[in-house]
Amino acid sequence: MHLAQLAILVPEYDEGIAFFAGALGFDLLEDTDMGGGKRWVRVAPPGAQTQFLLARAVGDQRAAIGRQGGGRVWLFLSTDDFARDHAAFAARGVVFEEPPRHEPYGTVAVFRDPWGNRWDLIEFTRLPGQAS
After folding, report:
1. Which of 25, 74, 89, 132 has the smallest set of CB atoms within 10 Å of its CB?
2. One domain for residues 117 and 58
3. Model-level pTM?
């Protein structure tokens, strides 16, 4: 088994596409009109197995936009070249909360998406908890 999709709340589909496909460089895998103002929008990092389903928040869901992780970093974007991707993200307007830091498990920096979700951009040298 593998985790196929993860829904992430966005205020509007096109805003979500602009951030994920634009600023982060994810692939736009699908954008299907489902009728009634609903769309099925899937994005993923190039070559990734797990996808994000961009879910336009409606009604009471709008209060949860940017708060799905309760204020914690809850999305971990792994890269094989931290310096390349950090520079590319910054050039496309992604705002990092901190400069890159080196941890025993790799190089990491926290950024927020436009709605407040906190992410790690991380190049692992080893997974946390793994023996050296």
Report:
1. 132
2. no
3. 0.91
